[in-house]
Amino acid sequence: MSQATGSYWLIGLAGNARRVRLSADAPLLVGRGAHNHLVLNDFRISRQHARVAPESDGFVVYDLNSSNGTWVNGVSVRRQQLNPNDQVAFGPFEFRLDFQIEEAGAADPVTRRATEILTKFTQTAPPVTTETAVRMATRATIPAEGEGSLPIGDQVSILPVRDSTKFLAEAAAVDLNQLEDAHENLGTLYAFMQAISTTIHRRELLALIADRVLDLYPSSAAVSIYERDAKVTAGPFERIHSAGAEAAWGGSTLPQAYSGASGTTMYAPMIHRGETLGVIYVAGDPRSDAFTVADLDLLKGMAVPAAIMLQNTRMHEESLQRERLQRDLELAAQIQQSFLPREILSVPGIEFLATYQAAYTVGGDFYDVFWVSPDQLAVFIGDISGKGVAAALLMARISGELRVAALAHVDPVSVLTIMNKAVINRGQPELFFTACYFTLDVRTGEVSLATAGQPPPYVCHASGRVDVITDGASTAVGILEDPGFTSTQLVLEHGDSIVLYTDGVVEAADTEGAFYGDERLAECLAGAGSRPSDISEHILRSVARHTRTASANDDLTILICHRRLDAPPSLRRR
After folding, report:
1. Which residues, 6 or more positions from 91, have their beta carbon under 8 angstroms from its beta carbon?
2. Residues 140-149: tens digit of each pLDDT
3. CA-CA distance, 168 to 146, in Å (whole number)?
4. pLDDT (tens digit per residue) in 30-52
5. Closest CA to 29 of 43, 56, 10, 6
6. Cβ distance 280 to 225 under 8 Å?
7. CA 341, CA 373: separation in Å to the nearest integer?
8. How many other CB atoms are found less than 10 A from the CB of residue 257?
9. Quick one: which of 410, 430, 412, 407 has its CA closest to 483?
10. Contact at 8 Å (CB) between 365 and 382?
11. pTM for this structure?
């Protein structure tokens, strides 16, 4: 006579669980979470709801602190030993415990068809070997009521698993609640990142961060965001945005010593590449439960993408500022060019050529040519202290005042003296300029010249001789109250050229920092001839060969006056 054996089964009784048949020879986890053996997809079921398992004293069901409880024969239980035909309810799902007796030598249960219908399975099981395949179990997913019916006529899928004692030892190492919490936190962080990545504008971003954090914590009363000035590496964090109850916003500055959480408040720093950009502050509602460590961990996680997006908004704002500045500089360059002569006066027998190159978009070099009497031209070139926009603004003012002084006094010494007094009287020690000013009698070629801190001019004769003019030199305008300006006289003969230039020529530096210098300039002029175009081209090419790839560090201006009595007047500006 064959020996009788048996196995436990959970049989579904109602709803979508009806006609479910699930092997229960080994411990089973029941709940809403995807990690359970029996997944009951309903909001009334806890993520990890219950555990049923055979033990030494019989078959036992445990309620795992579920929200709606576990019921046996209509009675709520925490731990209850079950007997065959007992009814077990998990929320709206009801099952009956069945014990089935089997005869020795009966058909292998692996191939046995179920007499009742199972739900659609999502099957998972550890690997199996022949030695450990001592029991059979299934993993079922049961939808909530109204979410679809069960398939009819499916074959039961029964999966071999390992010995139950080994299975429990391995499962004990995994906290399924923690896994489910981690899964939910990842979903929360992903949704948070998606929400705050919809804008690149700083104000909108701050509002999104604060509103999202406030919504995620039901126990919170207010959320404030503190930020430090991007230009300051140390200093207090200022509150820049708040949401929620105004009374709980917190102070205008962040406390110097703040902790991560104190039960009713939480702080999370927004750190990007080692720099703390700001802090998210969450104030709890005193009528609600205190914040937990898990709440603080989630806030710290949200602070990471918040810091990245905050840095992106800063970079966006800096880019916009650079674009605005570039537009302003281009406009300033146009305005500065309007202060320089559009074209130099056309005078019979006199040829002028001007070359101007700003080291930056705008610069401080200036020049001009104009009549001061029926037979005399005034010519000047100068360099304002400083570079860039500030120098360009000063250039506009100084060039205008110098023209007024020249028209009133003509003589170089008198003009420079008047300008020196005007600059000194402003009481701005940082304001001064260098200049070379001369008058030219267009009939005789007589020149009266004075230099004030400007590099010495050269005269390139038609014969090929080159002379440097060192007489009439003095200090820059606006430095000393009595600089003692002097002038020198010379005659510009037929074919001669007088070459004026700013220090951007002789102080042009190569990649090693070596200046172009006076000696190179003298050598360059010695082979340039006396025609203005040849002189200018020789200087520019020589300077370029010296500096090569080095960037210009000062404005460069060249002004050449050439006298040629047998040629028609020619005025050009480069």
Report:
1. 40, 42, 44, 45, 49, 68
2. 555 555 554 4
3. 35
4. 888 877 888 888 888 888 899 99
5. 10
6. yes
7. 19
8. 5
9. 412
10. yes
11. 0.51
